[in-house]
């Protein structure tokens, strides 16, 4: 029972992919131009674009400045002393290195001294106030605005 009008029983043929040509080759460039004649001036780099000079004691001066500033807010007495010491060392290193000015170290030294003086004044005022309160309470009974207080 085969039909003569039908093709023989075979597997279907897949469609063929079109063949693409390879990509074009990279363009060829000419060789570099020849060097200028010996009489022509050659390219010179611009001056002033080198690395910044290293200032001895600059980083230590910044550390001293930060310590001195911190002594006003965070660590009053010890920070001031540390800021003074670190700034003085930075200033000394700068002078030995031939750099007469180290601004962060100078500012750190001044702020450290100011902070130390203010800390000492603050401690004196604190102890005077405490002593005044204790002296008023030494007899055991005192009166303030019509109210009698007893200590101890």
Any overview of this molecule?
Helices cover 47% and strands 5% of the residues. With 152 residues, it is mainly alpha-helical. It has a two-stranded antiparallel ribbon. Helix 1 (58-73) runs antiparallel to helix 2. The protein starts with 57 loop residues before the first helix and ends with a strand. The mean pLDDT is 82.
Give the low-pLDDT segments: none
Strand residues, percent: 5-15%
**Biggest sheet, spatial arrangement of strands:** 1-2
Could you give the distance between the termini? 128 Å
Question: Measured on Cα atoms, how large is the radius of gyration?
Answer: 44 Å
Number of strands: 2
Helix-strand category: mainly alpha
So how many helices? 3
What sort of overall outline do the alpha carbons produce when their principal axes are compared? elongated
The topology string of helices and strands comes to HHHEE
Q: Can you summarize the main beta sheet?
A: 2 strands, antiparallel
Average pLDDT reading: 82
Portion of residues within helices: 40-55%
Biased composition (Pro residues): 9-26
Protein name: Otopetrin domain-containing protein
Keywords: Membrane, Transmembrane, Transmembrane helix
Transmembrane segments: 62-86, 107-134
Ordered list of secondary-structure elements with their pairings:
Layout: H1 58-73, H2 76-96, H3 103-136, E1 141-144, E2 147-150
Antiparallel strand pairs: 1-2
Helix pairs in contact: 1-2, 1-3, 2-3
